[in-house]
Design goal:
heterodimer, A: 262 residues, alpha/beta, TIM Barrel, 10 helices, 35% helix, B: 206 residues, Rossmann fold, nine-stranded mixed sheet, 6 helices, 33% strand
């Protein structure tokens, strides 16, 4: 049986982790390589980096980070943010990432999903979707609209339709990021996660809103998610990954145990 | 020297980085003479059977791997697509493969017992060691390893299977002949236990 995956997420700007990650005493908490190594040793099943570098001239920095991370951790990791072309994707994969995550760029140019899948295989392409609640209507039968640019720009697309379109174009996994829940610590949007997970033949990752271990359990048990992105819940040290995994295991979730330090 | 066969697939460098981390020297190469001269040969990869076999043939490496490596007794490790192309035939792209191990490669069913099965399998699955083998030395039975696959190998003889896993149905997760070893999972992406297997392969006497 496939284990449910716990995926810490690191936001990186100009080569530095941005969110106030406060708990680590002996580690440069701004250093994405040290952070990745820490989560790897703690038993993270995968790691995702979102590059939120704004200026074009600093975009190459993330590639240096990826190359360093790839020499130190031996689990899959993905990179998202600012990837606009197959060449952008190729550079990240060659630097050592396992997967690339595309979001707003895919909404603006859906063909990039197909191009990426053709060039590297569907298993490399994670379609990340930011979704926002809307009253269910003909335009939004799933009750959620796809938004981009960190939630600032509505797209008029229904979340479920876009999920299905993304899979049809070649996305190998979907990440459902609830903008309503992001940063609230109220738990994932279980409804849209389950709706999409049961409608597509690829793994679905829940994202946005985890504030306590119960929320992660709900993502798997009620949201039918295959994996869950965790950020503040692990960054602030309240619930380190081993404790989170013990909790999930005690509640009947199949998880990957890592007794041994890598 | 360990030769990593370059057939223009992804993730060759991941295996090289894992070997470097373990202190083993390796070389990514498509040159028949370098592959023939290697102490050990690794065929890793993420990719489709069609593209893999087409590229191996175009590079003149099909005979090299079958005759000069596998039949000549050189320790050989296939990873992911590298276990699948060892078989005689793959349903993926309707492809004739290397035929080093008798058997074939099938696609996971879309549903099992009326329940949809997500394909590809992506993630960590338990690997059950069905008999003691030095590849798994020091690794607890039923440890999790990282898989990314839509197809799975079906060796004709159950004797070659050293570990199984289950995704919708039971399948061979690792196989071993005299000098030929292969895993369906990515040991270069499977954390500590994966590195241990890779290190075991590099140190095993054949």
């Amino acid at each position: 049986m496939l284990a449910k995956r716990i995926i810490p997420c690191l936001d990186v700007r100009d080569g530095k982790v941005t969110k106030g990650v406060q708990f680590l005493e002996n580690i440069d908490i701004g250093d994405p390589v040290a952070m990745a190594r820490h989560y790897y040793e703690q038993g993270a099943d995968e790691i995702v980096f979102y590059d939120i570098t704004a200026s074009n001239e600093k975009r190459g920095i993330i590639l240096e980070v990826v190359a360093k991370v790839a020499r130190e951790i031996f689990i899959p990791f993905s990179v998202g943010g600012g990837l606009r072309s197959v060449e952008d994707m190729r550079a990240v994969l060659l630097a050592g990432a396992e997967k690339i995550s595309i979001d707003s760029g895919a909404v603006r140019n859906p063909e990039i999903i197909a191009q990426g899948a053709r060039a590297f295989g569907s298993q490399c392409i994670v379609l990340s979707m930011q979704v926002r609640r809307r009253p269910p209507s003909e335009a939004f039968p799933s009750g959620c609209e796809v938004v981009i640019d960190g939630g600032r720009t509505p797209t008029g697309r229904d979340a479920l339709r876009w999920a299905q379109e993304g899979v049809r174009l070649g996305a190998g996994e979907l990440c459902i990021n609830s903008i309503d829940r992001d940063g609230t610590k109220l738990g994932y949007d279980l409804e849209i996660t389950r709706l999409i997970s049961e409608a597509v033949p690829v793994p679905v990752i829940a994202s946005g809103g985890a504030g306590e271990p119960r929320h992660v359990l709900e993502a798997f048990a009620d949201g039918a998610a295959d994996a869950a992105i965790v950020a503040s819940i692990v960054h602030y040290g309240e619930y380190p990954i081993p404790a989170l995994k013990r909790y999930l295991k005690a509640n009947g979730v199949e998880i990957r145990e890592t007794e041994e330090r890598p | 020297m360990i030769a990593i066969v370059d057939y223009r697939a992804g993730n060759l460098a991941s295996v090289a980085r894992a070997l470097e981390h373990l202190g083993h020297r390796s070389e990514i190469t498509d040159k028949p003479e370098r592959i023939r001269a290697a102490d050990r040969v690794i065929l890793p990869g993420v990719g489709a059977a069609g593209a893999t076999m087409t590229n191996l043939r175009a590079l003149g490496l099909e005979e090299v791997l079958r005759e000069d490596v596998a039949r000549a007794g050189t320790p050989f490790l296939g990873i992911c697509i590298g276990i699948q192309v060892l078989m005689e035939y793959s349903e993926e792209d309707d492809m004739r493969c290397l035929a080093i191990i008798p058997g074939e490669v099938r696609r996971y069913p879309a549903a099992v017992g009326g329940r949809a099965l997500k394909v590809p399998q992506i993630g960590w699955n338990r690997v059950h060691q069905t008999r003691a083998h030095p590849l798994f030395a020091g690794v607890p039975n039923d440890s999790h390893f990282y898989f990314v696959n839509s197809y799975y190998p079906v060796p004709r003889s159950a004797d070659v299977t050293i570990a199984t896993s289950e995704y919708g149905l039971p399948f061979a997760a690792a196989i071993a002949g005299d000098n030929v070893i292969a895993t369906q999972f990515h040991l270069e992406k499977s954390g500590a236990v994966g590195l241990r297997l890779l290190d075991n392969f590099c140190r095993m006497s054949f």
